[in-house]
Specification:
alpha/beta, Rossmann fold, three-stranded parallel β-sheet, 10 helices
């Protein structure tokens, strides 16, 4: 029988540490605060945003929402980010993407200070992931995969991990995190030759291809651990992932469900990053005042 790696349990374990950190911040008179920025409103983001707001409330963090017109100029958006950088009461910023095509996404993303980049979108944050240093924060979905592996005691050391997907949001940072856990990593994508055979060779398979149910029986072998990052609307309004869950049942040793798997942990990771950002910024200001070097 395939073991379901449910996100709820992993997320609850993360919140225990976060609550302790919020208590520390409360003693210093600090409320960790997240600013969510929308350029235009995308109904597809509402579910994720509501989940984040709910997590913030549950953990004692503040949630702010800023909706900007879709025809906003690049300079005006940069000014919004500049003000968020300078606002000491804002500890983390989430900029919903993709941005409208008339905006230079790379320039705008990198205008955000890494210490407030709680979703790992700046070049400096990603450089920290690749170098194994705490510069900014890692992309939340990629880290959610690692949190699930850690929570369920799945040891990556010496294992062959295959990541299907090469985005900077999931695939590439997840590969680097797996390497840091001493896995041997292969990064694949939808144009990789003989992709099913490479996928079958994996001990740990992360599916982030962005296509519904693309990972079928021919991608699997007995005993694999499969993390399904995808989430798609299927027939009848149901949700499905990149993995065909029915075909995985009885073959994979363990599988994250969709919904209720990686996505559930992603929102928890984001709020945990906001709390950690508040701690780092508060401690830095304390050190600056006390003259600590």
């Amino acid at each position: 029988m395939t073991r379901l790696l449910k996100g709820k349990e992993a997320g609850e374990a993360l919140t225990q540490k976060a609550r302790q950190q919020v208590t520390e911040l409360e003693k210093m008179g600090v409320t960790p605060t997240l600013l969510v920025i929308h350029v235009g409103e995308d109904p597809g983001n509402l579910s994720y945003e509501k989940g984040i707001e709910k997590r913030c409330t549950a953990l004692g963090a503040a949630f702010r929402r800023l909706v900007l017109p879709s025809d906003l100029s690049e300079e005006d958006l940069l000014e919004v980010i500049r003000k968020a950088n300078e606002d000491r009461e804002i500890h983390g910023v989430l900029l919903f993407r993709p941005l409208p095509p008339h905006l230079d996404a790379r320039r705008i993303e990198n205008a955000l200070l890494p210490e407030k980049d709680v979703d790992g979108m700046t070049d400096l944050s990603l450089a920290g992931v690749f170098a194994g240093r705490k510069v900014g924060f890692s992309p939340c979905t990629a880290q959610a995969c690692m949190e699930i592996l850690d929570y369920y005691g799945i040891d990556c050391c010496g294992k062959h991990a295959v990541v299907i997907g090469r985005s900077l949001v999931v695939g590439k940072p997840a590969a680097m995190m797996l390497l840091s856990r001493n896995a041997t990593v292969t990064i694949c994508h939808t144009r990789t030759k003989d992709l099913p055979a490479i996928a079958r060779s994996a001990d740990i398979l992360i599916a982030a291809a962005g296509k519904p149910k693309i990972i079928g029986k021919d991608y699997m072998r007995n005993g694999q651990v499969i993390l399904d990052v995808g989430i798609h609307a299927a027939e009848g309004g149901k949700l499905c992932g990149d993995v065909d869950g029915e075909q995985a049942e009885g073959t994979a040793a363990a599988l994250t469900p969709v919904p209720g798997g990686v996505g559930t942990v992603t929102s928890v990771v984001l709020v945990c990053h906001v709390i950690e950002a508040a701690l780092r910024q508060t401690e830095k200001r304390f050190d600056d005042r006390s003259g600590t070097r």
